[in-house]
Amino acid sequence: MFDAPTLKAIGDIADHLKCEPAALQAVAEVESAGQVTALVKGRQEPLIRWEGHYFDQRLTAAQRAVARAQGLASPTAGAVKNPASQAKRWEIVTRASLINRQAALESFSIGLGQVMTAHWKRLGFASVDAMIARARESAAGQIDIMARFIEKFGLADELQRLDFTGFARGYNGSGFRKKGYHLKMAAAYQRLSGAAPVSAATGMLRMGAKGAKVRELQTLLVRAGYAVTVDGDYGPSTNDAVKDFQKAQKIKADGVAGPETMRRLDAFKQSADEQPGRQLVSDVPEVKDATKAGGFMVLVVAARDQVAETASYLTGIQADTAQTVANVLLAGSGAIGLGLAGYAIWGWFKSRRTDEGDIDAGAALPASDPALP
Fold first, then answer.
1. Do the domain assignments include residue 11?
2. Distance of alpha carbon 116 from alpha carbon 17, whole angstroms
C-alpha cells in the first residue's frame, strides 16, 4: 500500500502523537485508499476531493450564480460530484480559481489525511497556499497536515486508546456511520496489527456515542452550566464540555464520561430516580412521521404504555405489547396503520437505547465509497 518512506513518516508522526503506528496508518489508508499521489500534467500531485458546498459558502451572490451555473458550487454537501480522475479534480480547482482564487483554494480536502484546506489558519499555516505547498512536498508533508488536524481538533486521545468510533466522529463528522469510517479504520488496524482494537473506554460514553444516556449526560451538563445541545449525539461540543467539566472537577480530562464523571454529574439530578433528558413519545422523529401519515390514532397507540417502555434489548419490545398495538391498528386502519405503528414503535425503542460506540470486530463493512481516490 504505502512505500517505505511513507511508512517511516507515519511512524515518526505516530511517535509524536503517542499512538500506535498501525492506528495512524489505518486512518491514512482509509482516507486515501492507500494512494499517496496521482499523475497530473506530468507531475505527482497529492490527492484531493472538491467540496462544492464549501466553495458556495465563500462566494459573493454574483460569483455564486456563476459557479452554480458552471456546476462548481452548490448549497448542498455532495451535490457537486467528484470525477474519478485526480487530473479532472485539479481542473475543477483551476476553473473555480477563475471565479475566486482564495475561495477555490479553501474548498477541497488534500493529502493522505484528506484534510480540508479551509483549516489552514487553525493548523498553523501562514496561508492556504503554504498548506497546499506542504502537501505537495512529500508524503511526510501530507502526514504532517493530518497530524496537525488531529492535535488541533483534540483527537489524539481517541487515537491513543484505539477509539475509532470517537475518532471518526471528530475527524469525519456526524455522518461517519453512514460510510462506516469507524468500521473501516478498525478493520485496517486489525489487519495491520494482527489484533482487534479494544478501546480503554469500552462501555463508557464518549465521542461517537449516541442515544438515551447521551441525552441524560447532555441535560446534566446544561444544568452544570455548559452550553451543549441535548440531541443524543456525543459530538465535539459535548466532548469539549465533558473535558471542561472534568477539569473543573480536577479529575482526568479525557472527554470520556466514565463512572467518576457521571457520579459527579449526578449531583445535578433533581431526584435520585430522575431520568434527565428523557424523550417524550411525541418528540421521537419516527412517531412524528407516523402521526403525520396515520393521524392521531397512531400517536395514541405509540403512546400507550409508552410502547417500548419495557422493551427487551433481545426482542425489541415485549410480545404482548406488540400484539396489543397490532390489534388496535388493524382494527383502526388495517395493514398500513400497522406498518406506521411498527415504525413508531421502532422509533420509540431507539429513543430508549444507547450506543456507546463499541465496535464489533465481526461487523460487516459498508461498501467502499466510489468518490474516494
1. yes
2. 20
CA angle, 50 as apex, 47 and 52 as ends, to 5°?
Answer: 175
Q: Is 180 helix (H, G, I), strand (E, B) or coil?
A: coil
Specify the pTM: 0.77
Least Cα distance to 84 among 149, 35, 153, 14 occurs for 35
| Total of domains in the chain | 3
β-sheet bridge partners, residue 44:
39
Q: How many Cα atoms occupy the beta-carbon half-sphere of 263 within 13 Å? A: 5
What single-letter DSSP state applies at residue 127? S
Please tell me the distance from the alpha carbon of residue 107 to that of residue 68, in angstroms, as a whole number. Answer: 14
Q: Determine the Cα–Cα distance for residues 326 and 304; give it in Å rounded to an integer.
A: 12
Q: Which residue range is the domain that position 308 belongs to?
A: 281-353
Answer for the pair 351, 212: CB distance below 8 angstroms, yes or no. Answer: yes
Is position 362 within any domain? no
184: helix, coil or strand?
helix
Handedness of CA 18, 209, 213, 311 (dihedral sign): negative
Q: What pLDDT sits at residue 372?
A: 47
Q: Report the C-alpha gap between 233 and 210 in whole angstroms.
A: 5
Q: What is the pLDDT of residues 200-249, one digit of tens each?
A: 888 899 999 998 899 999 999 999 999 999 999 999 999 999 999 999 99
| Alpha carbon distance 245, 282 (integer Å) | 31
The pLDDT tens digits for 38-70 are 999 999 999 999 999 999 999 999 999 999 999
**Three-state secondary structure call for residue 45:** strand
Q: Does residue 200 belong to any structural domain of this protein?
A: no
Mean of the per-residue pLDDT values of the chain: 84
